[in-house]
UniProtKB/TrEMBL annotation:
The keyword Endoplasmic reticulum applies. This is Uncharacterized protein. GO terms for biological process: GPI anchor biosynthetic process. Residues 14-30 have a biased composition (Polar residues). GO terms for cellular component: endoplasmic reticulum membrane. It comes from Fibroporia radiculosa. Residues 1-30 are annotated as: Disordered. It is found in: Endoplasmic reticulum membrane. Keywords: Endoplasmic reticulum, GPI-anchor biosynthesis, Membrane, Transmembrane, Transmembrane helix. Its main location: endoplasmic reticulum. Pathway: Glycolipid biosynthesis; glycosylphosphatidylinositol-anchor biosynthesis. The keyword Membrane applies.
Length: 302
């Protein structure tokens, strides 16, 4: 009968259980997952030590260094004094010379540091996109190097104009701050512009997000933003001792803001390493916790 056939069909449909879909496993992803953290720690330590060397030792060696190239000055060159009093005397004798020598060392170090960050950024982007073409990476490096040369020419022309229009003391401090804060992001991402192209818009929004909104993403951006903030805050804090009525040689402008900027930069670099290290370890712990759960779900499905 047709009624009995319908009842049988209903019973069979109720008896067959529906196949349950396997649970979706979410895997944590973060910019730090592709970051060479070991190289970052070692490079940050070397960078911080060389910055301290540039600020404390390089200005002290300037008289003997010049004496080698000018033998007539060798008689006027004073013997090196490595005591604390001699070090302070040599650093405070000519504040402009001290800060300019610091700028020379900082320019070399920041160029090396920016190239390291740019290389890590390119590696991270290539690994995320799954790029296998080996010719694309050298092409990107050549484009960035050409951009860096254009930035250097622009900086040189602007520096000559500023040197003529403003006092040397203020210019030397401004140059040091520009090297510590603006040179690295300009080399890595490109200088911001008011252009209407897509690339100019992306670069401008990146600068706004990093330095206006203070929202860095990943270890590379933290390595750029945190030292820049520390350098500006250290320079501002270094101007406070100048107003004190102590009449000390080290209170001369712009020694304390310059050394405050370098100290703040080093402190910001260490904070960036600490935050990136904690994030990296937390991500590794999360991924290791997800691996056994994923294996267990696969064994249950089998």
């Amino acid at each position: 009968m047709p009624v009995s056939r319908d009842l049988r069909n209903r019973k069979t449909t109720k008896a067959t259980p529906a196949k349950s879909s396997p649970p979706v496993q979410t895997q944590a992803s973060s910019p730090d997952e592709f970051f060479p953290f070991a190289r970052y720690i070692s490079a940050t330590g070397v960078h911080a030590c060389l910055l301290a060397f540039t600020a404390l030792v390089l200005p002290r060696t300037s008289p003997s260094f010049v004496a080698h190239f000018a033998p007539s000055w060798h008689q006027n060159a004073e013997p090196a004094d490595f005591s604390l009093q001699g070090t302070l005397s040599l650093l405070t004798r000519s504040p402009v010379r001290t800060v300019l020598w610091t700028c020379v060392g900082a320019a070399v170090l920041q160029a090396w540091w920016a190239s390291c960050l740019q290389e890590w950024l390119l590696e991270s982007r290539m690994q995320k996109r799954g790029v296998t073409d080996a010719a694309e990476k050298p092409k990107q490096k050549l484009d960035k190097r050409a951009s860096g040369r254009r930035q250097l020419e622009t900086l040189k022309n602007a520096s000559l104009t500023t040197l003529v229009a403003h006092p040397v003391q203020t210019y030397s401090l401004a140059l040091l701050l520009a090297l510590l804060t603006a040179w690295t992001p300009a080399y890595v991402y490109g200088p911001p512009s008011l252009g209407t192209s897509t690339e100019a818009l992306v670069i401008r929004l990146t600068w706004i997000r990093l330095f206006a909104e203070l929202r860095p993403r990943g270890a590379i951006e933290r390595a750029i933003v945190y030292p820049a903030i520390g350098s500006l805050f250290g320079c501002w804090s270094g101007a406070i001792p100048i107003a004190l009525d102590w009449d000390r040689p080290w209170q001369a402008w712009p020694l304390t803001p310059a050394y405050g900027a370098i100290s703040g930069y080093i402190l910001g670099s260490l904070v960036a390493v600490s935050v990136s290290g904690i994030t990296h370890l937390a991500l590794a712990d999360l991924l290791s916790a997800q691996t056994p759960a994923k294996k267990e779900s696969k064994s249950r499905q089998r």
